[in-house]
Specification:
The complex is a heterodimer of chains A (712) and B (124). Chain A is an alpha+beta fold. Chain A is 34% helix and 22% strand. Chain A is built from 25 helices and 30 strands. Chain A has a 6-stranded mixed β-sheet with strand order 4-11-3-10-8-9. Chain A has a 5-stranded mixed β-sheet with strand order 2-15-1-30-29, sandwiched between helices. In chain A, β16 and β17 form a beta hairpin. The N terminus of chain A is likely disordered. By secondary structure, chain B is mainly beta. Chain B has 1 helix and 8 strands. Chain B has a 5-stranded antiparallel β-sheet, with no helix packed on it. In chain B, β5 and β6 form a beta hairpin. The chains are: A alpha+beta (712), B mainly beta (124). At the A-B interface, α7, α15 and α22 of A face α1 of B.
């Protein structure tokens, strides 16, 4: 019914001549408002139109419900945690201070010390449910494994005395003694530094956990701050330096997660997150089975749902025992907006995690979109860390504006986490007979075929020679032949190469091939931009990657072979579209970053920037820009093509000249180097004032009515 | 940074979380038939075990030596779940008789994991 309505709306708008490319609004002005109460007052007064933050305050919820000028979007994918400084599972920091959280058993005992029911009911006013493991209570895996969820909830239920006994035994093993009710080591109190976020209920959560730790006999130092004030300490510092012990964390799932098995690799191993806190994890040594199973779940290295269930159960128990992170609550948050605003809010991620908020944000009259206007959006914080698409900021507050500037080859459905094609027409998925893969109704753009065998063609690229800068084919690496569990074929639209970028360039096949190269190159020690933090990710990737082949350049058709598959066929497609983990990346922009990193002046990742003691790359602002511009001035006259032995076959000199000229003109006009292809472009950034201005990209190729069915 | 952490870890002797209950031996008996020997080497008892076999269409019988009776046995898609009436104590043996194994599998390739998984997975 909803689809019919959407079709009717599209038809009506076409007849009325209302079709509009680029964003519905002319301009988006993003500002910072750390206080949710103040934000609701600003909304009520009409000073802002959207407060893009997941609020969990019951009193504010009542206030918003009661105001006819306001409405709200509910979301279920945000969650809070207590992150501990695991210090590589060492009980002592490098300066000799005792770190109780370096002991896995003490970390695990914190499950019993923290009363999640209290947090959910008393602190969050019922707008949250207790969370005892990584599984989100609203996502499918909670329904798949209810018995495991229940057993874990029983086992880790609040039991202060039990937790205290475990901690006391472990502290004594470490040589600590309790004097006058206070833990001491080497004659001094054992001090724990708690980093407490202040933007939301985490202030109260942090105080509660600190109180519990004091009740155990620890001396607690409380440091309060907002995200960007605390992130240099908890996520960016070497854990062994001991700048902190505990942190009140929060995460957002940016789409409905239909398979949470991929998350263990993120939170419990070194394979995904490039930041020092996660790169120092010692899971591989402390619990090698957790490390192995996390990767198998990530790569779907199982042949049946029964096998997956065994692995998932182990991962849940073992991750709870390893406990570098204790999950506390799944938030049932709400995002308040003015009643005349519409957009596609994600069921899991709300507004600030929605992949298509920029495609859909609009003023409305009687439920219909109105063209134009400036929409004022506040978030709890802005401009936390540098923007670069390879390994820049992953903060939701940074990714929120980034997502509006760029887009992938597909649109993520904000209601169920499935995909809709955007730049491609259709896809085929082939998987081995018997694997647990299904098709979803209504997604006719994707076909699923079960086959007995998938042979990888000898000319498919399966690896990368970083020294010679050429791909290694299947025929070269596996002369005896190679098979895969899954093959996907993506058929791009004929009009792909007409898709304009914000700087006036158009997408080219070179953008795709660079993405393929970077999938390997960063993790190769022979590379000029080798990053140690990428090595374990590449190792995991190569374990299951079986090849990629460009079948046709125009129209672009790409075949991908892998042993990784997904439970939903629609999610098993590999598009290779130039949209990286942290945003859009086109070859001529990334080329400048590659040059700067090769010369050790900037680095894509924070981990490497610490190692080299240079600036973390930012294409939007700060000291990175003059360095990147220096390389632009060098690249343009020399016609520089990164990885020339390979990319030179896909990029013509005409394209090189045009791209660099466009980028130079863009920088002259805009003062930054953030080039994307989405419905809004980055107009200006004011780091000191914490303001970002996005403007409508009028050359955006698609009629925005295309996304209207997601708007509520 | 990662290397530094590991080096320091080894020097100080970091604590290692308990492994799963290991499969002691896989014994070839006759074409298509194997015995799988599981010994509880952990310092506490366990009453449930899960093993993942490479072939899917196998048949399984389970027996405990000097221990509690088998309460239930579930075999599906190569995953074998054994629930005992009580805990298998330290040193106790669980033996699985596995049939219907295609001849391409050997004692080395019969199991996907050389462990019998338990939940919770270790002593507390």
């Amino acid at each position: 019914m909803k689809k019919l309505l959407a079709l009717a709306l599209i038809a009506a708008m076409a007849f009325a001549g209302l079709a509009r490319n680029g964003a519905w609004v002319d301009e988006v002005v993003l500002t910072e408002e750390p206080n949710a109460g103040a934000a609701v007052l600003k909304l009520a007064a009409g000073d802002i139109d959207v407060y893009a933050f997941s609020i969990g305050d019951r009193a504010l919820f009542t206030q918003v419900q009661a105001n006819p000028d306001l409405k709200y979007y509910s979301s279920f994918g945000s969650f809070n945690d207590f992150t501990m400084n695991h210090s590589g599972d060492q009980p002592f920091f490098t300066d000799g201070r005792l770190n109780p959280f370096g002991v896995p058993a003490i970390r695990e005992a914190m499950h019993w010390i923290i009363d999640r029911e209290y947090i959910a009911q008393e602190i969050m006013g019922g707008l949250a449910v207790p969370k005892y493991s990584y599984i989100n209570s609203a996502f499918p895996d909670a329904q798949r494994y209810p018995d495991v969820v229940e057993a874990i909830e029983d086992y880790y239920a609040y039991d202060f005395a039990k937790g205290e006994a475990v901690i006391a035994a472990e502290m004594e093993k470490l040589g600590a003694t309790k004097v006058g009710g206070k833990w001491t080591y080497d004659g001094k109190p054992v001090e724990l530094k708690m980093l407490i976020r202040t933007e939301d209920e985490r202030r109260l959560i942090g105080d509660y956990i600190s109180d519990q730790l004091e009740a155990l006999g620890f001396t607690v130092v409380r440091q309060y701050g907002i995200s960007r004030e605390l992130s240099p300490l908890w996520i960016s510092s070497n854990p062994l330096e001991g700048l902190w012990n505990g942190y009140t964390g929060g995460w957002v799932t940016t789409a409905v997660s239909r398979d949470q098995g991929t998350g263990f690799n993120q939170f419990y191993t070194t394979r995904i997150l490039p930041w020092p806190l996660f790169q120092a994890l010692a899971t591989k040594t402390t619990d090698p089975i957790l490390d192995e199973i996390s990767d198998k779940l990530y790569r779907r290295e199982y042949n049946s749902m029964e096998e997956r269930a065994v692995l998932f159960e182990q991962a849940l128990w073992r991750s709870n025992a390893y406990a570098n992170i204790i999950w506390l609550v799944d938030r049932q948050g709400f995002t308040p907006v003015r009643a005349n605003v519409g957009l596609a809010a994600d069921l899991a991620a709300g507004v600030y995690g929605s992949q298509v908020w920029g495609h859909t944000v609009q003023f409305q009259e009687e439920g219909a979109p109105v063209e134009g206007g400036t929409i004022k959006i506040a978030t709890s914080t802005l401009l936390v860390e540098p923007w670069n698409p390879i390994a820049g900021s992953n903060w939701v507050y940074d990714m929120f504006p980034i997502r509006a500037t760029g887009e992938n080859a597909y649109v993520v459905d904000t209601r169920d986490g499935l995909l809709w094609p955007l730049h491609f027409e259709r896809a085929e998925v082939y998987v081995l007979e018997g694997l647990p893969v299904g098709k979803n109704p209504g997604h006719d753009w994707c076909t699923l075929t079960f086959v007995d065998e998938i042979k990888v063609p000898a000319d498919a690229w399966v690896d990368w020679d970083a020294e010679k800068q050429v791909f290694i084919t299947v025929g070269e690496k596996y002369p005896e032949g190679l098979t895969a569990k899954r093959k996907s074929v993506v058929y791009y639209l004929e009009s792909l190469y007409d898709v304009p970028l914000h700087d006036g360039s158009t997408i080219s096949v070179g953008d795709f091939v660079l993405g393929m190269i970077l999938s390997f190159d960063l993790g190769k020690p022979e590379s000029a931009i080798y990053d140690e933090a990428q090595e374990s990710a590449l190792e995991s990737f190569l374990t299951s990657f079986r090849g990629v082949r460009i079948v046709s350049e125009k129209p672009l058709i790409i075949e991908t072979y892998s042993d990784v598959y997904t439970l939903d066929a629609e999610l098993a497609i590999s598009t290779w579209f130039p949209y990286y983990d942290q945003g859009p990346g086109f070859w001529h922009v990334l080329a400048l970053g590659i040059m700067a990193e090769a010369n050790k002046e900037l680095t894509f990742s924070e981990d490497k920037s610490e190692l080299l003691n240079v600036e973390w790359m930012d294409f939007t602002k700060g000291p990175s820009l003059p360095i990147l511009v220096k390389y632009l001035e060098e690249a343009a006259p020399t016609g520089y093509i990164p990885y020339e032995p390979t990319l030179g076959k896909y990029i013509t000199q005409d394209e090189v000249v045009e791209r660099y000229a466009n980028l130079s003109a863009w920088y002259e006009k805009m003062g930054h180097l953030w080039v994307a292809s989405g419905p809004l472009y980055l107009d200006s950034v004011f780091p000191t004032e914490k303001i970002i201005v996005l403007k409508r990209f009028a050359d955006y190729p698609y009629d925005l009515a295309k996304f209207q069915f997601l708007v509520k | 940074m990662r290397n530094l952490a590991v080096v320091v870890g080894l020097a100080l002797g970091i604590s290692v979380l308990g492994a799963a209950v290991p499969v002691a031996e896989v014994q070839y008996i006759s074409p298509g038939y194997f015995w799988v020997w599981v010994q509880n080497t952990e310092p506490c008892g366990f009453d449930n075990f899960k093993l993942v076999f490479a072939p899917k269409g196998i048949t399984v019988k389970a027996l405990v030596i000097n221990g509690p009776a088998v309460q239930s046995l579930d075999v599906k898609s190569g995953v074998v779940k054994v629930k005992l009436e009580g805990a298998l104590k330290t040193g106790g043996w669980l033996v699985l008789g596995v049939g219907g194994v295609p001849t391409m599998y050997t004692a080395d390739t019969l199991l996907k994991y050389n462990e019998a998984f338990t939940a919770p997975p270790r002593c507390r």
